[in-house]
Amino acid sequence: MIRPVLPDVLAELESLEDPKALAINLRHGNTHSVNLTKVRGIAKQLGAQPELARALWATRQPNARLVALLVARPKQFSEEELDRWLREAATNKERDWFVSYLVAKSVHADALRKCWMDDESPDVAAAGWALATDRVVKKPEVLDLDDLLDRIEAGIQAAPERLQWAMNTCLGNIGIEHEDKRERVLEMGLRLGILRDHPTSAGCVSPYVPVWVPTMLRRRAEG
């Protein structure tokens, strides 16, 4: 059933390619050239199709891979296959969607989180920290938050950019979601100074933890 569908999906994606969108995406480490709303629309029409997802992923085409991540079914992917897909991912968007839409919903999420956080590849380690952040918010009982804070304190300053961002995101979310850890989080953020000078567009919140955490808490209180 895949063979007649795959060429149709690829042809539709090709017809939707936008050079201007590609130029913008390249600035952020991505290579897809189709508007993400249109990518989601194609995936919605296709529905869950894990075998088609595998075929789309195997093309190595950026637009096709994003559709693949949306039509995959997490429960039908083994731990080994998920690990392989992460290492094959070529762009930030592929990695982000892979973690959010596939791994975070998988029964293998926690095993992979523990494995990936210590990986030598910064991109793989960042995926592990992204999973840790997901658990900080949704399932903190599987975590040792003090251990996470110890690891962040020991490693965030020397971490490569993408990994540092993922660790900082985890740090901030611990402060936002867990009042009993908030004082330590804010002290660490102030002392370590990670992303203190990060450019922030008007209307956006700075990722600098001593600014980010209080801002998000205030917004929650205001409803």
TrEMBL record:
Q: Which residues form the signal peptide?
A: none
Report which superkingdom the organism of origin falls in: Bacteria
Looking up Pfam families in the UniProt record yields: DNA_alkylation (PF08713)
Q: Which InterPro entries match?
A: ARM-type_fold (IPR016024), DNA_alkylation (IPR014825)
Q: Which PANTHER family match?
A: DNA ALKYLATION REPAIR PROTEIN
Question: What's the protein called, per UniProt?
Answer: DNA alkylation repair protein
Instruction: Please name the source species.
Output: Arachnia propionica
Kindly list the organism's lineage: Bacteria, Bacillati, Actinomycetota, Actinomycetes, Propionibacteriales
